[in-house]
Amino acid sequence: MKTITHHIPERLLAAYASGRLPHVFEVVVATHISMCDACRAGFEAHQAMGGVVLDDSDAVDLSDDLKADLMALLDHEMVEPAPAQRDGIFPGPVVEALKSRPPRWKSLGFGVKQSILEAGSEGSLRLLHIPPGQSVPDHGHNGLELTLVLQGSFHDETGAFGVGDLEVADDDLDHTPVAGDGLPCICLAATDAPLKFNSFVPRLLQPLFRI
Amino acid sequence: MVDTAMMFFWIKNDPEIAQPRNVRMLIATETSEAVSARGLPRAHPPYRKEQAHVTCDRDLSEQTQWMLAIRNNRDRSAFAQLFDFYAPRLKGFVMRTGTSAAEAEEIVQDVMLTVWRKAAQFDPERAQVSGWIYQITRNRQIDVVRRTSRAMPEELKQTDEHEPDAGQILAVEQEASRLKLALARLKPDQRMMVEKAYLGELTHQEIQDETGLPLGTIKSRIRLGLERLRHELKGLREP
């Protein structure tokens, strides 16, 4: 198996562990962790740090009946829903975001397809399907964009990205990702702002396709 | 800097070397004293080799022993003790972010109930009790304020019939003690930033390396975690 070389930056991992990432980014980070031992270990380290802060918190007196009420609830065993497991190329968090259904691909032209998993005020989350050798129109960003490769590969001005690799793009990056040879490139991508396409036609299409 | 975690694994894997046990004991003693001097929970006494295979080791922290009794035996009195230790701290932790006392108690109740119900998922070789409960607490707090619950990574499949390694559990506890010390040694304003980050009060734009997150210390915890993961995954791949 190819080694993952592009990981979650430390501050994003810390923000994820402390529960402060918008949901669309959480899904990408959780998916990467599902594929990457190094980042799972990092996530667990941040949990340990959170545990230290919890331990250090001042103890505050509880209401008198809180403990008795809780002890009485222990007999009501509840079955927690099992977390989603990997399905084909989609790790558990993606399966969850897909609500366990197959992606609903919509064409963007030139063989490029997308399946929108989430779109709201906090940002958008989608799957992208790019045929081998095809480029995604040159685009810049208003905010943060995370792109995680689930199948195939792509490369752009900043480097090459294979399965499990995460690209972090911010305001400064204008890039033209091109899918590698072999299998079509399937990516999970999240942004907290609409993409700005630098060529005229895609910009016209932007409201139509919600990209 | 001497890396305790790496040294530990090196020692563990080399039966030829007897002397470094003293090094470990020194580290453990120093940690224990320094921690108790700050009035924080007591660290475990030094690790002894002959107890390495005892599941519910007396050397483990009380918190871990309670949690293992809950996980393995559904022990209610252990749960009552765990509650007495964590519930007041949890309430304090939740109230630090401006939550009212009444709402905080609801969260405490939900979290402690989840601890009971999900006890089977507690893996002392990878997580220290406080870190595990921290995670459950943040999930619950997110559920309260958000429409979508937090996306979580796939669980690693637990290996069945796997005897927990007390040495590994102790190593995880020691790392937690080291993180505690690292936090205690920060300058007050740095420490406040770190606490704010883990309380969930800083966005990803606000969390910068300059916030003083003790990343160096976290990195040694990461190495320990990686070592453990490799061990666990190897077990999964070799049935």
How would you describe this structure to a colleague?
The complex is a heterodimer of chains A (211) and B (239). Chain A is of the alpha+beta class and 211 residues long. Chain A has a single domain, classed as Jelly Rolls. Chain A is built from six helices and eleven strands. The mean pLDDT of chain A is 87. Chain B has 239 residues and is an all-alpha fold. Chain B has one domain. In chain B, helix 2 packs across helix 7, helix 4 runs antiparallel to helix 5 and helix 5 packs across helix 6. The radius of gyration of chain B is 18 Å and the shape is globular. The termini of chain B are far apart. The relative contact order of chain B is 0.12. The N terminus of chain B is likely disordered.
Keywords:
heterodimer; A: 211 residues; alpha+beta; Jelly Rolls; three-stranded antiparallel sheet; 11 strands; elongated; B: 239 residues; mainly alpha; globular; disordered N terminus
Look at the helices and sheets of chain B and give the structural class.
mainly alpha
Mean pLDDT of chain A: 87
What's the number of helices of chain B? 9
Strand content of chain B: under 5%
What are the low-pLDDT stretches of chain B, counting only 5+ consecutive residues below 50? 1-56
Order of helices and strands of chain B: HHHHHHHHH
Helix content of chain A: 25-40%
- Strand composition percent of chain A: 15-25%
Q: In summary, what is this structure?
A:
Chain A has 211 residues and is an alpha+beta fold. Chain A has six helices and eleven strands. Chain B has one domain.
